[in-house]
């Protein structure tokens, strides 16, 4: 039974060792250590003081040299590794050096020379080092938040298409009212869009100081690129065009807000308020005679239904006031996420003027479909799924597809997952 000890601290120059970004870097390092040494840690303790945080971890069934090799890999490979000081102490109380394993000395984070030589000679001003460290941590947080946000968006798209039954829509059992797409078309589209989500978040982060109009234009450009990738993947079938618009607004707004508050969850009302400021510039399209015609624009001209642009410009009120409370309440009562999301979709159909429904069936038939969905919600919950399958057949017969409501469901799931990741908080989103 071999054993050794880890002492983990941060390399923070200057007198000020404790500040929020340093704590974030420390937590990231400790999380990585837990991953790298999973199964070997038999005891740990943590200390916090003005001189910085320190963790002591006792390892078993691993040699000190193997532990040091892994520690060096963390210090070399992690984006913040240059800040990590992971000492390995053998059972005799001696620290294992890098040179014992044939590794070169650590390099200075500014000039690349031997770090100890630079430190002894005080070659670099503490202010320069601290500025570099803060930039390192912020860049790490930006990338980490972008990846986590993109993961939530990807998960939301996969969940939305998988929810079954969904009247008139593609689900795991059928194509609904669509003859040009199926479940796998949506999977192809989702896979093509996956890399775009982190880019949209990063655009928000990088343009945090820009006015909402400039951020909107930057997001619109990346959204057009995402649309092209979608159409290439689906052979020109529109699976996610409206959702790309909404997710671009939300991801851009989230990136912008996280840049200014990178260490705490963003209140959902702050997020939707920011979304409204950005998306308000999209409503100009409704009044632009030279803008490319679409089903949404035609619905606005004929019925003054603002569609996805209006929903986003208003801060996604249907999601916040209707869909999220419905979904969260259903989950809290013990329903499976599929069933909770299916009920949420029916609620959205009942309460939303869906431009896709109006385009396919006309205003009167779309309104009738809202009433039909509302009637289903009055049934006992164990009867709703069967009734929804019958409504699916009715919608197919009338060529109805509530695609806008499906997008709102995906947005609802997205916000739920962002809350799980603690990127946002929904605590204030549910009305009293």
Key features of this structure:
single chain, 432 residues, alpha+beta, 4-stranded antiparallel beta sheet, two-stranded parallel sheet, 15 helices, 60% helix
Q: Write down the oligomeric state.
A: single chain
Counting DSSP E segments of at least 2 residues, the number of strands comes to 6
Report mean pLDDT, rounded to a whole number.
91
Q: Tell me the strand order in the biggest sheet.
A: 2-3-1-4
Radius of gyration, CA atoms, in whole angstroms: 26 Å
Low-confidence stretches: none
Tell me what portion of residues adopts beta-strand conformation.
Answer: 5-15%
Number of helices: 15
First CA to last CA: what distance?
58 Å
The amount of helix comes to: 55-70%
Biggest β-sheet strands, sense, barrel? 4 strands, antiparallel
What letter string, H or E per element, gives the SSE order? Answer: EHEEHEHHHHHEHHHHHHHHE
Give the helix/strand class.
Answer: alpha+beta
- Shape label: elongated
Characterize the structure shown.
The protein has 15 helices and 6 strands. It is an alpha+beta fold and about 425 residues long. It has a 4-stranded antiparallel β-sheet, with helices on one face. Helix 6 (about 210-235) packs across helix 7 (about 240-260), helix 11 runs antiparallel to helix 12 and helix 12 (about 335-350) crosses helix 13 (about 355-375). It is elongated.
């Amino acid at each position: 039974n071999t054993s050794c000890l880890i002492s983990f601290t941060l390399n923070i120059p200057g007198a000020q060792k404790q500040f929020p970004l340093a704590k974030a870097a420390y937590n990231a390092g400790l999380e990585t250590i837990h991953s790298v040494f999973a199964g070997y840690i038999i005891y740990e303790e943590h200390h916090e003081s003005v001189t910085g945080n320190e963790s002591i971890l006792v390892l078993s069934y691993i040699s000190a040299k193997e532990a040091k090799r892994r520690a060096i890999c963390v210090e070399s490979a992690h984006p913040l590794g240059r800040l990590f000081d992971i000492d390995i102490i053998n059972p005799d109380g001696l620290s294992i050096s890098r040179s014992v394993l044939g590794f070169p000395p650590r390099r200075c984070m500014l000039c690349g020379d031997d770090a100890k030589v630079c430190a002894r000679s005080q070659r670099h001003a503490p202010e320069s080092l601290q500025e570099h460290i803060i930039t390192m941590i912020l860049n790490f947080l930006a990338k980490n938040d972008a990846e986590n946000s993109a993961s939530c968006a990807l998960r939301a798209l996969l969940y939305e298409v998988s929810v079954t039954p969904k009247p008139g829509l593609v689900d795991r059992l059928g194509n609904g009212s669509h003859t040009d797409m199926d479940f796998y078309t949506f999977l192809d589209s989702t896979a093509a869009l996956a890399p775009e989500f982190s880019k949209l978040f990063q655009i928000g982060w990088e343009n945090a100081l820009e006015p909402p109009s400039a951020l909107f234009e930057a997001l619109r450009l990346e959204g057009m690129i995402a649309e092209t990738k979608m159409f290439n993947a689906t052979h020109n079938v529109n699976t996610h065009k409206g959702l790309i618009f909404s997710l671009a607004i939300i991801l851009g707004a989230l990136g912008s807000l996280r840049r200014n508050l990178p260490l705490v969850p963003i209140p959902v009302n702050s997020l939707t308020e920011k979304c409204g400021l950005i998306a308000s510039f999209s409503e100009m399209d409704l009044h632009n005679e030279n803008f490319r015609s679409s089903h949404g624009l035609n619905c606005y001209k004929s019925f003054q239904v603002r569609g996805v642009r209006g929903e986003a410009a208003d801060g996604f009120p249907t999601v916040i006031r209707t869909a999220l409370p419905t979904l969260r309440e259903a989950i809290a009562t013990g329903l499976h996420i599929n069933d909770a999301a299916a009920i949420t979709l029916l609620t959205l159909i009942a309460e939303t003027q869906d431009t896709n429904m109006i385009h396919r069936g006309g205003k009167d038939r779309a309104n009738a479909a809202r009433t039909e969905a509302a009637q289903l919600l009055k049934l006992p919950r164990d009867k709703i799924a069967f009734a929804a399958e019958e409504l699916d057949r009715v919608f197919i017969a009338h060529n109805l597809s509530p695609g806008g409501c499906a997008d709102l469901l995906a947005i609802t799931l997205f916000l739920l997952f962002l809350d799980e990741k603690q990127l946002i908080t929904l605590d204030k989103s549910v009305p009293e």
